[in-house]
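Go through this pair.

…
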Amino acid sequence: MASVVADTGIHSTAVVDTDAIGSGVTIREFAVVRPGVVIGDGVVIHPHVVIEADAKIGEGTEVLPGSHIGRAPKAVGSIAREPTFRAHVEIGARCSVGTNAVIYYDTEIGSETLIGDGASIRELCRVGTACVIGRLVTLDRDVRMGDRTRTLDKAYLTGGMRIGTDVFIAASVVSANDNTFGKVGDREENLRGPTIEDGARIGGGASLLPGVVVGRGSIVGSGAVVTRDVEPETLVLGVPARPVSLDGR
């Protein structure tokens, strides 16, 4: 157990098993930092954070209490697929990781990204720079997100989604990647997540069904259910979602 060190600010109750710690780092009470972790200059790790082996935390990033970085995915019981992943996670510079957020192994987070309280980011996810992942948002396995994309509270982004740059996803948006409802098992070839192209905007409570493409610069209205592709620069509303003119007629 490390003792308090003046130049790094490691609390006496923290368990720190790495020497790769930059200058001006603060590690607070009861945090756990495993072997092989690399911590950049000026990082702040709050109480009860767990950072698993071979994680990399960029300079100036703050990790708030209770977060778990580098969780290994598990398969038990009815889970058909044995998880495959690389035991490494990287969080860029000047990020903020919220209270009780969980970031799995084999995940990369770009710099200056905000991850809200209770967010869950699964293995194989890639998040760009200057993104927002809101409170209680879930990024399921293998979600790819471009730069400057914002996803608000309680959204669920299903496995295999592809999301472009400058996208806006409002609160409580849900998505799906399996039209069989799991009837034929959780096999990769049956899973097709939606694609959201650059600059598209998705309204609160909208639903995106498996494999749909929301075109560049398009708008999906609140509560809409997208069952087919949306053309670029198009507004769709309703259940099922249908194109309308920009004045809503």
In short: The longest strand covers residues 68-71. The chain is about 0% helix and 30% strand. The CA atoms of residues 36 and 54 lie 4 Å apart.
